From TrEMBL, chains A, B:
<dbReference type="Pfam" id="PF00356">
    <property type="entry name" value="LacI"/>
</dbReference>
<dbReference type="InterPro" id="IPR028082">
    <property type="entry name" value="Peripla_BP_I"/>
</dbReference>
<feature type="domain" description="HTH lacI-type">
    <location>
        <begin position="7"/>
        <end position="61"/>
    </location>
</feature>
<dbReference type="GO" id="GO:0003700">
    <property type="term" value="F:DNA-binding transcription factor activity"/>
</dbReference>
<dbReference type="InterPro" id="IPR001761">
    <property type="entry name" value="Peripla_BP/Lac1_sug-bd_dom"/>
</dbReference>
<keyword id="KW-0805">Transcription regulation</keyword>
<protein>
    <submittedName>
        <fullName>LacI family transcriptional regulator</fullName>
    </submittedName>
</protein>
<dbReference type="Pfam" id="PF00532">
    <property type="entry name" value="Peripla_BP_1"/>
</dbReference>
<dbReference type="GO" id="GO:0000976">
    <property type="term" value="F:transcription cis-regulatory region binding"/>
</dbReference>
<dbReference type="InterPro" id="IPR010982">
    <property type="entry name" value="Lambda_DNA-bd_dom_sf"/>
</dbReference>
<dbReference type="InterPro" id="IPR000843">
    <property type="entry name" value="HTH_LacI"/>
</dbReference>
<keyword id="KW-0238">DNA-binding</keyword>
<keyword id="KW-0804">Transcription</keyword>
Amino acid sequence: MTTQSRATLADVAMLAGVSSKTVSRVFAGAGNVSSDTRERVLKAAKRLRFRPNNLARNLRRGGVTNTVAFVIGDLKNPFYFHVAAGIERELALRGLTMVLATTDDSPDSEERVVDALISQRVRALLLIPIADDQSYLEGERQLGTPVVSVDRPARNLVADSVVLQNRQGMADAVRSLTAIGHRRIGFISNPSAMYTQRERLAGYREALREVGVTETAQWERLDDDPDISPELAVQSLLDLPDPPTAIVAGNNRGSAGAVRVLRNLEPPVAFIGFDDFELADALDISVVAYDPMELGRTAARLALEHLADPDSFTKQVEIPTRLIHRGSGEIPPPR
Amino acid sequence: MTTQSRATLADVAMLAGVSSKTVSRVFAGAGNVSSDTRERVLKAAKRLRFRPNNLARNLRRGGVTNTVAFVIGDLKNPFYFHVAAGIERELALRGLTMVLATTDDSPDSEERVVDALISQRVRALLLIPIADDQSYLEGERQLGTPVVSVDRPARNLVADSVVLQNRQGMADAVRSLTAIGHRRIGFISNPSAMYTQRERLAGYREALREVGVTETAQWERLDDDPDISPELAVQSLLDLPDPPTAIVAGNNRGSAGAVRVLRNLEPPVAFIGFDDFELADALDISVVAYDPMELGRTAARLALEHLADPDSFTKQVEIPTRLIHRGSGEIPPPR
DNA sequence: ACAACTTCGGACAGCGCTGACATTTTTGTT
DNA sequence: AACAAAAATGTCAGCGCTGTCCGAAGTTGT
């Protein structure tokens, strides 16, 4: 007697001496069942260790599940999992569960992964677009599955989206540097081709243009090779004949690199990162911060709203950023 | 024509002029289908935007899914997330997906959450036990669902488990401190009641006993109130009339606090943390490190093994830890 | 005592798919 | 050309559940 089989409604019904429909009523919550029978059913269910089969229930109910999918490029990025935590939190409030799928940051696998999720009949789809084209989701959207694009807008697809105030956040950071006299400001970004980085770069240039600096190319280190360490990018800026007096980073990977290189430098180089990180306070690193959980919560909320009102218009939400002054961004230029 | 309904096998079959079973064969991969019909079917499926319904497939196949659940206390802890990443990675190799559920670190909700997952007919259950008793899973285990306990052993339940070398890892850290002369060594831990912390505490005491130090109570700061900051615990150690010359922390929360307090202290106090963290290298913090993803990968592998051979014996796996010397743990005691 | 109503419980079909088995078509062999 | 073997396709039932419809009790008022 190893692997006996699982009890079904019918088994419970038989043991309790009622019809399976009555058992169904007990477990579905609603329905007219006398407390007497209800108790008998529950007791029988307990004896048999019965658990309702959600697969069957969902199939019967029209083939939708209580599951929302979140498609991520790479789980190891702490940013993503804060977002995931926000999503999970928000979904749990509505009794929904989150499945997590990753594409390994490979555009090719995105459609494959999403396809598999749709086969699972997920209730909604939240994704951080990696591929250049999400038009393959158009059909699904028309069938009523909410699609929310997170952190970057989807391409060739009408979908709700939640992004950060990338441009303005970075511009604010750079402005706070120009305000205290910096003019030669470096910008490091890797990978630089993606939406968020392009936006932040635009913000950087915009803020410098406001103080009359238009030739920024020499101070931009835009890479798209994960093997190029941010440390290297920072160092190459410092090695310039006329090195920057301040540096900003496009993401927390860049910040980590910058921190390692810029510590104990004389004269000190001002620095502001994008994305807050653990111990940034202990290291006195100024950053453009935001609430990544809020990003997730908002994404989930958009999906739920769309579920509640399928004909609602597409929404674009921007999550605010704010500059946190901790010291590294307040270092004035030398002399 | 807003929300039209989803195409089924039968719809595709009709359009392609074949039986639904043939369409099923095409999508199930296997089966003998002439390339001629296959193409016709695929074309029809594409026209109708058909996606096989996994709900129905799984129900028909005996009520199991391709889904493995990972039950976590709190998603915001980066440690858990790396574990989750490892699980996801390993499962993806076998075509399985991971659903993530959280219990908000509340013992009460554990059973509720697990129950819901079982109703979803997850293929296996990986969980970080929070409650004091996992006996409620016994029935499920007998039905053949692999249950793997992660980071802590399950209680009152025979289940595979993957834990860290907590005791030995901490003992190694303390030994490396006693080796360079430290005798007054502080230990901070919060929450201290949980298995991992108790083990690490045991390792700490063991290593001190080896050098004849048996009265350690005064140097132990064992709290179970999340509101007590690790900074406070560290400070209270430093305020002792005879303060410790070295401090070890039971988790990375403690490390973050210790880093903040111990920086720029004169004379310096040696420190070793448990759990590596971002920028620990930049801060020269020595830690007991391990690979959290490996923890997840191993857990997933155990579940898969059990799935392959349901009668296999229960396994307990320990993930090795290693002491990383970065400077903070190599500071000798004063004089 | 009887109609009118409410409450409780059951019979049945079918959600979309696939396993077992049956049937037709194709291919190979002599 | 005749036949067997192999390949391709079809038929049918049913996975576990619930929506719909219906019947059998119990309850109330006159």
